[in-house]
Amino acid sequence: MPILIVQTKETEKESVMDDLRLDINSVEYSTELLKKHFPKGATVWLVIRQVSRSGMYRHISCHSVHDNEVSWLSYHVAKVLKWTYKEKTHSVGVGGCGMDMGFHLVYTLASILYDDGYALKQRYI
């Protein structure tokens, strides 16, 4: 005897986040989460956690602040950018020197999320 599954309005998915709720390690989930925390014009708060002796590599953590709550989003930023996540410092590994690497990180993130590198602002804590 076949089983019939009837989908009612209460069981319908309302957003992409509902579809991706169980797979928190996916790039799609991280992208939607970052768009929620960083709408266009939002500020990405950065902390430089560690700098290599040569100065060519940094660990930068990324945060959002809403209603006096700080959210640590470095893992999801690293996932979307396909850059290294540094578990020891809970931050994104950024290579390079000679320019503001925090700006580079936020510009690249905004380019991926909104196709506009200047859609997000950055500040250091």
Proportion of beta-strand residues: 25-35%
Give the overall shape, derived from the CA principal axes: globular
Number of strands: 6
Number of domains: 1
> What's the Cα radius of gyration?
18 Å
Major β-sheet annotation? 6 strands, mixed
Structural class: alpha+beta
Mean pLDDT: 87
Tally of helical segments: 4
Q: Sketch the topology as an H/E string, one letter per element.
A: HHEEEHEEHE
Distance between the first and last residues' Cα: 63 Å
Low-pLDDT regions: 8-13
- What is the helical fraction, as a range of percent? 25-40%
Can you give a write-up of this model?
The chain has 125 residues and is α+β, with helices and mostly antiparallel strands. The protein has one domain (16-124). The chain has four helices and six strands, in the order ααβββαββαβ. Strands 1, 2, 3, 4, 5 and 6 form a six-stranded mixed β-sheet that branches. The longest helix is centred in the C-terminal third of the chain and has 14 residues, at 101-114. The N and C termini lie far apart (63 Å). Residues 8-13 have low confidence and may be disordered.
